[in-house]
Amino acid sequence: MLEISQLNVAYGESHVIHDVSFKVGPRESVAIMGRNGMGKTTLLKSLIGLLPVRSAAIRLDGAEMVGQPSYRRVQHGMAFVPQGRMVFPFLSVEQNILCGAEHSGYRQVPDYIYQFFPVLKDMKQRKAGNLSGGQQQMLAISRALMANPELILLDEPSLGLSPKLTKEIFEIVVRINRERGTTILLVEQNANMALNASDYGYVLENGRIVMEDSCERLREKDDIKEFYLGMKDVGVRGERRWKKKKTWR
Questions:
Q1: Measured between alpha carbons, how far is 29 from 185 in angstroms, rounded to an integer?
Q2: Bridge partners, 55 (sequence order)
Q3: What is the pTM of this model?
Q4: Is 162 helix (H, G, I), strand (E, B) or coil?
Q5: What is the CB neighbour count within 10 angstroms for residue 143?
Q6: How far is the C-alpha of 57 from the C-alpha of 183, rounded, in Å?
Q7: Given this structure, which CATH class describes domain 2-243?
Q8: How far apart are CA 122 and CA 23, in angstroms?
Q9: N or C: which end of the chain has fewer CB within 10 A?
Q10: Does 246 score more than 70 pLDDT?
């Protein structure tokens, strides 16, 4: 469905994304993991058209997206849930959701939205700015779903949320992928949640893809265990974590 080839993105003279290439198949859920400042958000913004690229091929269902404005990419079936939610605080919950219907033709919120997020139905006349962080995250995902997308780009959905709310949000993301067949490209620092919610994963380090595999196999790799899942085996010499080098360096 989505094919990225030799993606390079820069802020002025600062080269942030270096020759990144990967694929996302139909109905797949794919995670891109990495620490803060590794280029994850920059990557997603370049895919949806919010940042220009230096060079790349970005194909969605075979159609080239480079040079297309963001709204054209939405028309082609791509939706974006930004980091920090970015809801419209003075609009109601229902008005926020309907903002995503520009290209789908919906005049009212369809039932399936409230089936995924029943709490929003009870709050549909409440101003979005009065919702909790978790409720705003649900609202941002609902707004993206209103475009009836084939592919949703999710940027750090766990940001600022409690572990309980994070678990709830990720359970819903998995349901959207499985029940609606919506392809998910997830950028997430919480590697444990990302690996549990996805089929395939990539590790982004300093703007480069340094590791990839099925999420099942990634969970068993020593580097992922130690540097992303907080697990380590201490040998007889008591090897310290900060002295160990990642194998992808």
A1: 6
A2: 8
A3: 0.88
A4: coil
A5: 25
A6: 19
A7: alpha beta
A8: 39
A9: C
A10: no
Could you tell me where the beta strands, DSSP code E, fall in the chain? 2-11, 14-24, 29-33, 55-60, 63-64, 78-81, 151-155, 183-188, 200-205, 208-214
Cα(27)–Cα(136) distance, integer angstroms: 25
CA proximity to 207, closest of 51, 83, 70, 63: 51
Q: Which residue do the tokens 């990642």 mark?
A: 246
Amino acid at 184: I
pLDDT one-digit tens code per residue, 168-216: 999 999 999 999 999 999 999 888 999 999 999 999 999 999 999 999 9
d(CA 91, CA 13): 39
135 Cβ contact list (under 8 Å, min separation 6) = 119, 120, 123
* Domain locations along the chain: 2-243
- Burial readout 213-227 (b: 16 or more C-beta within 10 A, e: otherwise): eebeebbebebbbeb
